[in-house]
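Researcher: Next entry in the queue.
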Amino acid sequence: MNWLMIGVIILSIFIVNFAIHGVLRKIYKIEKKKIFSYNHVNSLHRKLDWIVRIANTVVIFIVLYFSVFHNYSINLMLLAMSGFIVIQGSIQAYFEWKKSATPKHSILTVSDVLLGVIIITLLIQFDVITKLVS
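Model: Structure for this entry, 134 residues:
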């Protein structure tokens, strides 16, 4: 039953994200970009992105260690993930806005960041992870 609930939650997130993107594309006349394509705008963007990704990986492993071996709450990992979502999304939105040929894509990136933070906040607030695991 837990796997079914996890699937429903993930499917709901994808549907909400798809709907938000559709509405924003219509309002701001934003053209579609390829699915699963992530092109860096310039070399500085690539370097910053990889620094953030490596730092994210290190921090997640440290938080996972404390969660498993020292009984810290899993919500600490969710907070760390939301922080990195904001950092990485902000860097991507900035470079899309200032340095890209398609600055309107930054609107979609900001909406993804906001949606990610809202979802993580709701997961923490309603203690969804603990209820699904137990």
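Model: The chain has a mean pLDDT of 92.
Researcher: Noted, moving on.
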